[in-house]
Amino acid sequence: MVIIWILFLTLLQEPWSPGRAAAVPEAAGAASRARRDAGGRGGVYEHLGGAPRRRKLYCATKYHLQIHPSGRINGTLEKNSAFSILEITAVDVGIVAIKGLFSGRYLAMNKRGRLYASESYNSECEFVERIHELGYNTYASRLYRTVPSRAGTRRKASAERLWYVSINGKGRPRRGFKTRRTQKSSLFLPRVLDNKDHEMVRLFHTNVKYQESLLKAPSKNQRRRRGH
After folding, report:
1. What does UniProt give as the signal peptide span (predicted)?
2. Who has the most CB within 10 Å: 38, 179, 201, 216?
3. 130-185 confidence digits (pLDDT tens)
4. Are 64 and 75 in contact (CB under 8 A)?
5. Is it the case that residue 23 has pLDDT exceeding 80?
């Protein structure tokens, strides 16, 4: 009788709650779904609203994307080029802006599909970032694309097509309307900075002469020697 009475008092002090055990995994699952929804079909964008990611975009054509102070966009075979160090910032879900750390200009695409480096941020600087099946990323203009056309008497209807950032096998940018998602020239691998890149960033922020030498326009002979 005494044992039964003790058990009864214990139940009164700590009532049993049937839903408590299932609450933790349910909350974790909801958070996981929220991250997937934020990333959409292109993957999880956990950096949304965070600090810019410093990366180099290495194209499948073996060139690093460069943003020059002159407004020029091209690719370089150099492993450590100052103008290939970029800041990638999320401006919306799945939408990024890409800025040259040293040039201070933004990667942009105009209505003719040409890539250029803009001095200021605008709608032409926004790109849809997606993860490709091969592990590379693609960057398509948010503003411009090929609009689908209706079928005519002699031609079939065309589907909507995105315009991608693309660097060809000679290190030159391709016009957006000529690009495809599956082409090597449209596939980019974001690379983290190595020790030499970090040293260049440190010098750029602390050494005025180093900064001036980088931003100084190269001569014609220097451009020929560099190739790209």
Report:
1. 1-21
2. 179
3. 998 888 999 999 999 998 766 655 655 567 899 999 999 999 999 999 999 999 99
4. yes
5. no
pTM surpassing 0.85? no
Residue 12 reports pLDDT greater than 70 = no
Residue 60, domain extent: 53-146+161-215
Q: Are 75 and 172 in contact (CB under 8 A)?
A: yes
CATH code for the domain of 133 = 2.80.10.50
Q: How far lies 9's CA from each of 2, 5, 16, 17, 222, in Å?
A: 11, 6, 13, 17, 89
Intra-chain end-to-end CA distance of the chain, in Å:
93
Helix (H, G, I), strand (E, B) or coil at 111: coil
CB atoms within 10 A of CB 39: 18
Only one residue has tokens 């970032």, namely 129
3-state helix, strand, coil in the chain (%, to 5): 30, 30, 40
Residue 8 lies in a domain: no
Per-residue model confidence (pLDDT) at position 49: 56
Domain for residue 76, yes or no? yes
Q: Judge whether 121 lies within some domain.
A: yes
Judge whether 196 and 204 are in contact, CB under 8 Å: no
Q: Which tokens go with 93?
A: 């879900």
